[in-house]
Amino acid sequence: MPDPAGWRRFARQCALLLLLLLLSMGGGILSVWSAGPEVVVSDKTLSGAERRYGVEARKRLVLWQQLLATPHSRSDLDKLRLANDFFNTIPFVSDLDHWGREDYWATPAEMLASNGGDCEDFSIGKYFTLVAMGVAVDKLRITYVQARNYNPVSQAHMVLTYYATPAAMPLVLDNLIPEIKPASQRPDLTPVYSFNGAGLWLAKARGEGKPVSGGSDNISLWRDLLTRMGKEFD
Fold it and tell me: What is the distance between the alpha carbons of residues 47 and 106, in angstroms, rounded to a whole number?
């Protein structure tokens, strides 16, 4: 059965844990979790992508550039649908097959130019696109979940979640299904931890009284991704 109360508890825990992290680190977390560089598809990026991946790569990036120019006056829900539909046309490819690495977080330009990515890349691409389209950073979280009823039966997975308000039931943008649904309609997903350009949040494991750890391993992947943005094809 769906567990809307569980997702609401997760949202409340997110806010509390972010405050605790900020207090414990004296605000230093803000220098670690920056929102990243402005999303710009330059002529240099377009030319570099075409040299490396061909003319179709340039076309995909031009289409993304047009999406990024969506008027900020459009509603958040319209922007969510546009970004979700756009990225979900890209084929799913594992990091090992695509990049020859066990774990690689591609920038949106790398994903689109190479025409492939895994669940992290879909979520990251949608996140940066929506921020560029004017959706507030504090409404978006890249969220690690446990996905059930897939092959394998249970697997680590990443989605993008949107919170209209801090305590609202989040909407889930996922590459596994085309529709954007409230988390209450995704009983196959259990949130573990999430982050965005402002902070890292940990959810409590069900049935346990302690936070789930492991997010620190991904800080370096996130920071490495930010340093590559805008310089992918130099």
Answer: 18
